[in-house]
């Protein structure tokens, strides 16, 4: 089994059959070898640096109905909120003071934020903080909107493909289309965004073949960023009684992502930290190199509830930043507060 890990390290990919076999026979020794090689790749590409992104969860309204997500439109128990452009700018100011040079603006799919409103907001943030990068994570929109927001100054876009299995995707997204999601990712790349794709691990009904398909898809898409987190149930969703994805399975997929795409930025996700208190540190040790402390105002934190027991919903932004810095240092890494563009973007000199 270790030979397959060595082959992956040397070639940057395996055939789907080989990967399915590896995932199906992952004993402790193989896992250790995988983690060791993934860490080596990360060090070769990014050294011991961990990039910090300030996350602003600006709206919990969503018109979609993803079966797993606490923000789904059908969750009548959810408390909804929207931050005004002024409040979002205020979060950026606080974040900038704390040293952040990337702001990630994330929300449910909320058309209340029109293209014009978002474009103005992006221009305002950029004019006040020209040396900061703006990452959007607002879901599916028209190509014209993506284009205008890019021209207004947005640099990056996170939109997980969620699962590369058409069957599984369709069963989890009653209001969405598998092909359209992928089309959006292609469009974003073509426009010039640094793009983040990614998926959840441990979704009900997910097989090792599905996970192998996720790696194959990522290899062909070649995104700048890859978000991988465990599925965690939320009580007020149709999957409220389902089992969460496991820590080990998620770490394996993070390590594989590092070996498949050495130049990608890979966050140690909040979902991993919610599953296990040391989850994010473990992810950093097997190939992840980004963390996203929360900059949202305290009074909305608990309302952005994607899944049960989400961490860091009670801490001030400064506390979150400080806590993560200590954790990163203790895990043997160093914090980089710069923009932290992906090596792929730097290499191809896209949108500086
Ligand atoms: N609405 C946008 C979208 O879907 O792309 C951005 C916000 S959405 C809340 C961000 C990510 O949260 C999704 O891509 C999904 O992978 C993750 N997520 C949602 N529900 C989750 C759950 N129950 N467990 C783990 N991750 C979840
Ligand atoms: Fe909405 Fe995104 Fe949650 Fe789906 S994952 S329900 S699009 S917020």
UniProtKB/TrEMBL annotation:
Q: Name one GO biological process term.
A: water-soluble vitamin biosynthetic process
Q: Which cofactor does it need?
A: [4Fe-4S] cluster; [2Fe-2S] cluster
Q: Which Pfam families match?
A: Radical_SAM
- Cofactor detail note: Binds 1 [4Fe-4S] cluster. The cluster is coordinated with 3 cysteines and an exchangeable S-adenosyl-L-methionine.
Source gene? Answer: hydE
UniProt: (3R)-3-methyl-D-ornithine binding residues: 137
Q: What keywords would UniProt list here?
A: 4Fe-4S, Iron, Iron-sulfur, Metal-binding, S-adenosyl-L-methionine
Question: Which GO terms fall under molecular function for this chain's record?
Answer: 4 iron, 4 sulfur cluster binding; metal ion binding; transferase activity
For this protein, the record's SUPFAM superfamilies field holds: Radical SAM enzymes (SSF102114)
InterPro entries for the chain: Aldolase_TIM, BATS_dom, Elp3/MiaA/NifB-like_rSAM, FeFe-hyd_HydE_rSAM, HydE/PylB-like, rSAM, rSAM_sf
Residue span of the signal peptide, if any? none
On the tree of life, the source organism's domain of life is: Bacteria
Write the lineage as a comma-separated list. Bacteria, Bacillati, Bacillota, Bacilli, Bacillales
Q: What is this protein called?
A: [FeFe] hydrogenase H-cluster radical SAM maturase HydE
List ligand-binding residues for [4Fe-4S] cluster.
62, 66, 69
């Amino acid at each position: 089994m270790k030979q397959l890990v060595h082959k992956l390290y040397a070639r940057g990919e395996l055939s789907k059959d080989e990967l399915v076999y590896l995932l199906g026979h992952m004993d402790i020794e193989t896992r250790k070898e995988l983690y060791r090689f993934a860490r080596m790749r990360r060090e070769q590409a990014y050294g011991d640096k961990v990039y910090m992104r300030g996350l602003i969860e600006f709206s919990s309204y969503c018109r979609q109905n993803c079966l797993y997500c606490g923000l789904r439109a059908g969750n009548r128990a959810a408390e909804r909120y929207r931050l005004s452009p002024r409040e979002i700018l205020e979060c950026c100011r606080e974040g900038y003071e704390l040293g952040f040079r990337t702001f990630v603006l994330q929300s449910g799919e909320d058309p209340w934020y029109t293209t014009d409103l978002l474009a103005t907001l992006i221009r305002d943030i950029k004019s006040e903080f020209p040396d900061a990068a703006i990452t959007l994570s607002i879901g599916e929109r028209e190509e014209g909107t993506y284009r205008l927001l890019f021209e207004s100054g947005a640099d990056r876009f996170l939109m997980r493909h969620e699962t590369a299995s058409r069957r599984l995707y369709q069963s989890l997204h009653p209001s969405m289309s598998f092909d359209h999601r992928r089309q959006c990712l292609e469009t974003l790349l073509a426009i010039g965004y640094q793009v983040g794709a990614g998926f959840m691990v441990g979704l009900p009904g997910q097989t090792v073949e599905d996970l192998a398909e996720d790696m194959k898809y990522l290899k062909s898409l070649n995104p700048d960023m890859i978000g991988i987190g465990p599925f965690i149930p939320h009580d007020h969703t149709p999957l409220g009684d389902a089992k969460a994805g496991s820590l080990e399975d998620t770490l394996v997929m993070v390590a594989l992502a590092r070996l498949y795409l050495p130049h990608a930025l890979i966050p140690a996700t909040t979902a991993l930290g919610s599953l296990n208190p040391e989850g994010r540190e473990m992810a950093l040790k097997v190939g992840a190199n980004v963390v996203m402390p929360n900059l949202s105002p305290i009074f909305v934190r608990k309302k952005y509830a994607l899944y049960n027991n989400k961490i860091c919903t009670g801490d001030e932004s400064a506390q979150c930043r400080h806590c993560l810095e200590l954790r990163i240092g203790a895990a043997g890494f160093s914090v980089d507060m710069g923009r932290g563009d992906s090596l792929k973007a730097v290499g191809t000199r896209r949108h500086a």
